[in-house]
Amino acid sequence: MNETNTLGNAGAADAPLAENQYVKELLDILKDNGRDPSGLAALINHVADMEGFVRQAEGKISDMKSQLDSMKEIQDHPIKATLQKTVKSLEAKIAEIKVQIAELKTNIIEGCKNAIIAFKEKGAAALDKLALFFHIKSGLQSMDKNIGVSIRMDDKAIDKIAVFSKEYHTTGRHLKNMGRVLVGKEPVDTVKASGKLAKVVSAPYRADRACLLSMKKAINKMIAKLDQLERSTAVKRDSRPAAKKPSLMEKLKDNKEFIRLKDLEKSVPERAKIQGLEV
């Protein structure tokens, strides 16, 4: 096994986890020893899903940057600088998530490596404690918490933009109605939907929110799968045959045998004396 090449490939940011040598070897070991590999395979697939969501977010951010550059109506508007700052913030957030995913992949690979070593040293029984080799649950829970905070921030931003847009259009309606009244026309009560600018302003937050929601679902699935593996390990430990408790008759029999043995330990004269008394 070429460990240098394997670890080098594992450190590559774009290296698929399913193609890692340790991961493939452990999956083969599980199959060859009658163990269910679906739990490990599910973890690998969920990581791949998260990487896919990140790529989608990067693509949407790239599209937004192009859209901002092409919108003539905001070229000289202060909102453009604000949106550009928002996009940079989203790029930084996605970059941070990519680092966390890379750490997650490294920990999974290390867990596979340790499981393989344990199998070679202790045999197939080591595979029954597979969940114990993956120290990733706390990291996943931390990611889930941070992503939840980011989603709530996106929700608040989208709501604020919607309120601002409504107020903006309501003000515009009042001004137009004033003009209509002055020329003898009936005022209009209908409030227009959010305009193009409002959609552009909220687009970065909506794209980020969509990516984070998908990421959160994948993380929750991974945590659930780890819980399932841990329960499976606990069941295997608890399923060992317990020591059989002796029945009442067996206890009485053992007690009589104990008395007989103690009697045999006594000296012959002492037994004769006792027997003479009994007569």
Characterize the structure shown:
The protein has 279 residues and is mainly α. It folds into two domains: 3-163 and 205-240, no CATH class; 247-279. Helices cover 78% and strands 0% of the residues. The protein has eight helices and no strands. The protein has helices spanning 3-11, 21-32, 38-70, 78-122, 137-182, 196-238, 248-265, 268-278. Helix 2 crosses helix 4 (78-122), helix 4 (78-122) runs parallel beside helix 6 (196-238) and helix 5 (137-182) runs antiparallel to helix 6. The chain starts with a helix and ends with a helix. The model is unreliable at 1-12, 237-243 and 271-279 (pLDDT under 50).
Summary of the model, kept short:
This protein folds into two domains: 3-163 and 205-240, no CATH class; 247-279. 78% of the residues lie in helices and 0% in strands. The chain has helices at residues 3-11, 21-32, 38-70, 78-122, 137-182, 196-238, 248-265, 268-278.
In terms of quaternary structure, the protein is: single chain
The portion of residues assigned to helices is over 70%
Structural class: mainly alpha
Q: Can you tell me the number of structural domains?
A: 2
- Cα separation of the termini: 84 Å
Instruction: Give the rounded overall mean pLDDT.
Output: 76
Structural Rg: 35 Å
Specify the number of helices: 8
The amount of beta strand, in percent, is under 5%
Note the run of SSEs as H and E: HHHHHHHH
Give start-end ranges of low-pLDDT stretches: 1-12, 237-243, 271-279
